[in-house]
Amino acid sequence: MICGIKIKLFGNRGNKNMFENIYNNKTVLITGDTGFKGSWLAIWLLKLGANVVGYGLKPKTDKDNYVICDLKNKITHIDGDIRNYNNLLDVFNTYEPEIVFHLAAQALVMNSYKDPINTYSTNIMGTVNMFEAVRKTSSVKVVVNVTSDKCYENNEWIYGYRETDPMGGIDPYSASKGASEIITSSYIRSFFNREELASVASVRAGNVIGGGDWSENRIVSDCVCALNNNEPIIIRNPDAIRPWQHVLEPISGYLTLGSLLYIYRKKYSSPWNFAPSYKNTVSVKQLVEEIIKYHKDGKYIIKNDINKKHEATLLCLDVSKAINILKWKPVLDFNQTVKFTMDEYLIEGFTKEEVYNQRLEHIERYIQLRKELEE
Fold first, then answer.
1. Per residue in 122-149, pLDDT tens?
2. What is this structure's pTM?
3. Which of 59, 56, 60 is nearest to 32 (CA)?
4. Which of 238, 231, 260, 165 is nearest to 204 (CA)?
5. Given CB 3.0 to 4.6 Å as the disulfide criterion, which of 73, 148, 234, 342 pairs with 177?
6. Is there a contact between 297 and 227 (Cβ–Cβ < 8 Å)?
7. Residue 32: which residues within 8 A CB-CB, separation 6 or more?
8. Other CB atoms closer than 10 Å to residue 334's CB: what's the count?
9. pLDDT band at 312 (very low <50, low <70, confident <90, very high)
10. DSSP-derived pairing of the beta strands 99-102 and 281-283
11. What domains are defined for the chain?
């Protein structure tokens, strides 16, 4: 029950009626659409009938989800760097989006040590540029800024961080995401504080896995590469504990939040965590063992690097706020998460259309599982 109105965001009401039919025929801008989460978000929005416009860098590899799903021929994409304000503003002016999902970022912790200037300029000034473009575009009704679970000042607590906990970060990536959250809060209070202006929120997710993510130092893609080459998987941080979740989990949260911001405006203009069940919070070693079990072959070796840079060993999120207020909850258990993910990686011989259809089928399966969970 929300504002005295009974609202069910998922259900067997036809695809385009999901999320109260908010996205159907709406122009939705995704910054970072060529990235892993951005490309999955684009697929789901297309399924919902949205007119998807993407702004971002060119894909890094020909294996990226954006490429293997042939999204360049399914959405309107503009090549551009989020740090180029004039180019970004031109996209806003040209396409006049109603809803914006901001995902463009330098998203790798280890890369942030190698290139902190790029990390800070992309993740901090990129956020500022996006909000400035929104301020100058009257068509925008909703903005969802996608940051990271690593935005929190991590004290390696055994319990999950809540949205009210302090921002922080040792590594440049984490610090930049904490800064992006502070910037978001500032813009909400300084520039989007009237009802007629855009409704803004930020979202923080745990360790997201799924098909088509070939970024450096990603444990699943490293596993797949090793298994495909009949080589042992190298694990450098086996005891690090992470809240593993399939990419559809947080995206379902982003879409839920976006629809509620559109309907109820400022009521939901705040930060939100989206994370899996605590049962999905397991070590890197356990994840690798499950991947090998699914693959039915392979082995791993542990190599400790005494010179490795700091990376959090334990990080969990509390999703009570999303569960109680948004009526969102995680769906997939750990085994289902790994199965979805490995099915999406093991696509040798698939055409691009077959890969795209597999992604759609997984979205349908996810929706069905959520419906069963709610009944």
1. 999 999 999 999 999 999 999 999 999 9
2. 0.92
3. 56
4. 165
5. 148
6. yes
7. 38, 55, 56, 82, 102, 103, 104, 105
8. 18
9. low
10. unpaired
11. 15-374 (3.40.50.720)
Length reported for the chain: 375
Q: What count of other Cβ atoms lies within 10 Å of the Cβ of residue 127?
A: 27
Q: Could you tell me which residues come within 8 angstroms of residue 270 by beta carbon, excluding any fewer than 6 positions away? A: 163, 201, 202
| 2: helix, strand or coil | strand
pLDDT of residue 157: 77
What's the confidence (pLDDT) of residue 311?
A: 62
pLDDT in tens, 78-113: 999 999 999 999 999 999 999 999 999 999 988 999
First to last CA, the chain: 16
Say how far apart CA 24 and CA 28 lie, in whole Å.
10
CA distance 220 to 266: 38
| Dist CA 175 CA 185 (whole Å) | 15
193 token code pair: 């504080």
- 375 burial level (CB within 10 Å; 0-12, 13-18, 19+): exposed
Residues 145-163 as b/e (b if ≥16 CB within 10 A, e otherwise) read: bbbbbbbbebeeeeebbeb
Kind of pairing between the strands at 271-274 and 199-205: parallel
Q: What percent of the chain has pLDDT over 70?
A: 93
The SS3 call for residue 244 is strand
Q: Are 290 and 335 in contact (CB under 8 A)?
A: yes
Q: Are 88 and 137 in contact (CB under 8 A)?
A: no
As a whole number of angstroms, the distance between CA 27 and CA 48 comes to 12
- Tell me the backbone φ, ψ of residue 269, rounded to 5 degrees: -85, 85
Radius of gyration for the alpha carbons in the chain, expressed in angstroms and rounded: 20
